[in-house]
Structures are given as structure tokens and as C-alpha cells.
Amino acid sequence: MSAVPARTDPVRYVAIGDSFSEGVGDDGDVPFPGWAGRLAVGLADHLSGPVSYANLAIRGRLLAGVLDGQLDAALALDPAPTLITFCGGGNDMLRPGYDVDVLLGRLAEAADAVAARGIRLALLSPADPSARLPLGRMINARGDAWAEALNGFSRERGLPFVDVSRDAHLGRAEFWSEDRLHMNPLGHQRVADLALHAIADGPEAAVPRVPDATRTSVATELRYYRDHVVPWVRRRVTGRSSGDGRVAGQGDWAPVMPSRPGGPGRLT
């Protein structure tokens, strides 16, 4: 474990990843949507000081695209980041030839590059939408294998790790948006709370009290497949991605001020 910086040290936090880290599905009324933006606000509150925040994540990116493009951009930020969160591999699970060892090898190279700069790296496993998706059993098995690999890697390297995919509560429909592939504001907030606890010794994440999801009708199911599944299949067949032509939504540092006074906190 690296030395603990004082809470007065500057915190410059950048997120890299795919749609999950981009914040897709979070339409809540917050200054920085998505779990990463919510984490930035949580860090500012917990540390009782301003945080600089950037988010380079782009939907549809495979792990290689995250590490080849976004990581370089993160390391090139001026001033340099002090904290990077990485969550990737979720889109790789939907592709043939999925290989955990290959992905882990790429991640190891990236972790070496981050460590060489003296920057703190935190890892998250992708959210697991498999409970209500076609091919859910395959996605779940691949997600568990990737989460286990990330858990072992983080232990070896002494890195904070947030096992989102195997969280005991996030499989519930109440945490997911209409497309069933991305989390809604409740889901993003829970992930932010889990990450704050793992990264900055924040409070244990409380389970939100939400009503049970109602059973969907046949008409609703048909509309779901028409509006979400069919377009996804069409993109796979044509080799397109939902992120084609998109750029990072928060490509440079933005100040995040504490929303409330609090006691002294620190990054662990």
C-alpha cells in the first residue's frame, strides 16, 4: 500500500472506461452524472476539499481501446492525475474469442505505466446486467471470471478494487435503466458509494430503499426487444459501435467543490 497523502494534498481524479464509467443511464439531477462523477463529489465531501475531475470514458469501447487511447490521454493531462479509476472488459465479454488472460496481460502493462508515474490506480469490475438480458448465463459466467481475475490482480498489486459485478444488491432490476444494460441513478449512486469506501475509506455503502420492480407485460417485453435488442444486434452484424464518432464528455479538469462541510478524511 502506498503512503497515505494528507487530506490537503490535491486530488485530481480521472475515470477511463466504457459506457459504465461514462455514466450512461444516469439521468439524475446531479452536477456530474454517472458513478464516476458522483464519486468525484463524494471525494470532495469526504476529504473536505476541492477535487479536480475528468472523465475520458466512451461507450462501446473494448478494453484495448480504453488502455490504448484513454490511458494515454489521462497520463497526458496537465497537471497530471493523482487517481485513475479503470473499469473495462464488459464489452469484450460480448465478443467471440473472449480471453481473461489476454485482457489481464494488457491491464498489467497499463498498471505498470501508471505506477511508474506515481499515480494511484483503482479497479472496478463491470456492472453485471445478465439477470434480464439475452445470453445472460454466458455474460454472467464471463463476468465472474473477469471479476475474480481483477480481484487477484488487485491483491497482488495492492490496488483498491470494487467488485461491482458481484455486489449482492446490484443485480436487482430497480438499479437498472430501461435498456437493462446500463444502470439508472440509483445504481450509479450505489457504485459511487462502494468506490468511495474502497478508495478513500469512506462510509460503508448503505443499500437504498427502493420499491420492488413490477412484473413486465408481454407488450413491454416486445417493445424492449424492438427498441434495444434489435439495434444492438444490428450494430454487431454491421461492425459498428454505440461509441463511434464520440469523444470524451469531460476531457479536461473540472473543479468539484464540497457540497457540505465534513470532518477530515483521507485517501487510503
Structural description of this entry:
The protein has 268 residues and is of the alpha/beta class. The protein has seven helices and six strands. The chain has helices at 19-22, 34-47, 63-75, 100-116, 136-157, 185-200, 218-238, and strands spanning 11-17, 51-55, 83-87, 120-124, 161-162, 250-256. The chain has a six-stranded mixed sheet. Helix 4 links the parallel strand 3 (83-87) and strand 4. Helix 3 runs parallel beside helix 4 (100-116) and helix 4 (100-116) packs parallel to helix 5.
The helix content, as a percent range, equals 25-40%
Number of strands: 6
Please state the overall shape, judged from the principal axes of the Cα atoms: globular
Q: What's the order of the H and E elements?
A: EHHEHEHEHEHHE
Termini Cα gap:
8 Å
- Describe the sheet with the most strands: 6 strands, mixed
Radius of gyration based on Cα positions: 18 Å
Count helical runs.
7
List unreliable stretches of 5+ residues: 1-7
**SSE class:** alpha/beta
Instruction: Estimate the mean pLDDT confidence.
Output: 85
The share of residues in extended strands comes to 5-15%
